[in-house]
Amino acid sequence: MIDLRSDTVTMPGPAMRRAMAAAVVGDDVYGEDPTVNALEEMGAGLLGMEAALFLPSGTQANLTALLTHCRRGEEYIAGQGAHLYRFEGGGGAAFGGIQPQPLEFDTDGTIDLAKAAVAVKEEDPHFPRTRLFCLENTVGGRALPLPYLPRAVEFARSRNLSLHLDGARIWNAAAACGLSPARLTEGFDSVSACLSKGLGAPAGTLLCGSRPFIAEARRWRKALGGGMRQAGVLAAAGIVALEENLERLTEDHEKAAVLAQGLRRIEELAPLVDGSHTNMVFLRLPDGAGHAMADYLAPMGIRVSGRGGVRLVTHLDVSLEDMERVTAAVASFVREDRGSLQRPK
Ligand SMILES: *Cc1c(COP(=O)(O)O)cnc(C)c1O
Questions:
Q1: Residue 135 burial (CB < 10 Å; 0-12/13-18/19+)?
Q2: Mean pLDDT of the chain
Q3: Among 178, 197, 227, 343, which residue's CB has the most CB atoms within a 10 Å radius?
Q4: How far is it, in rounded angstroms, from Cα 165 to Cα 103?
Q5: Atom number of ligand 1 nearest to Cα 197
Q6: Has this prediction a pTM greater than 0.70?
Q7: How far is the CA of 16 from the CAs of 1, 20, 89, in angstroms?
Q8: Which segments within the chain are labelled E, that is strand?
Q9: Cα–Cα dist 66/96, whole Å
């Protein structure tokens, strides 16, 4: 099976499972799990923040960040396609009474700061109070352009907004830029960073920020039901993920680059390949062709996500050789099924 639907599908390897079995644990709600504490300290250090909190998922980490930054009736600005706005079940509204102010992403995943400035409401009882500006990195598989980051920080400061980074794949962004993750989080008030995507842990996200921010976030995590007890068995996997799997993310990026290159050699497909942003390749296919391709590949043991176009995500459980098999299988789909690619987009 070559599963390219997401980098969340990886299985914990033997070293990770050994570390989980051997983890020294305690009750983390009392702050007494030494493995969780070690992971939080390690994550905060890597991300250049004062403190960190271990949560079961990225969704809960982003929701905890929203609840910690904003009160009921306040709003946050985020991309129209941002995960925390679009793909997290409306949690901020459902549980916090927090209103989103979505703005279109530019093609590079940035939010135009002039448009954001217009969206910030002035102090007036008619308006919600704009409290928070949210960015995502990587966004759609791309690292945010480096020169944008200090401009965004300056914008947020000048408007008195807090700044949150959904850094589920911040590790991939850092690897792509050849910089430490901490360089990409400078000036942000909070950052969420996933351990169970490219890094291969079975669960867990770190939310980082100042000590007072994390103390408050700890309260919200408890209220949301995210206070886990002997969570060190999971945190141990997170530590192995950070120790063993950070460096090798560039290998995933190489696999994606090779895959994109292979797919571009298929003539009919070449103009539709949007590829080699970190570990993702997108095929901008006409309606319906994504599902057709996914259905065609499935019996060949290749799984891809066919919602909209096709998204192919590389990770530690697929190899460089697998990319050749996928390219060949896609080529035979294109040969046999020209019709669906030629439908107007
Ligand atoms: C996956 C993801 C999340 C949420 O993580 P879960 O652990 O699946 O809840 C948040 N933001 C981005 C950008 C993601 O890709």
A1: buried
A2: 96
A3: 197
A4: 16
A5: 1
A6: yes
A7: 21, 6, 31
A8: 2-3, 51-55, 74-79, 99-103, 129-136, 162-166, 190-194, 205-209, 273-277, 280-283, 302-303, 310-313
A9: 8
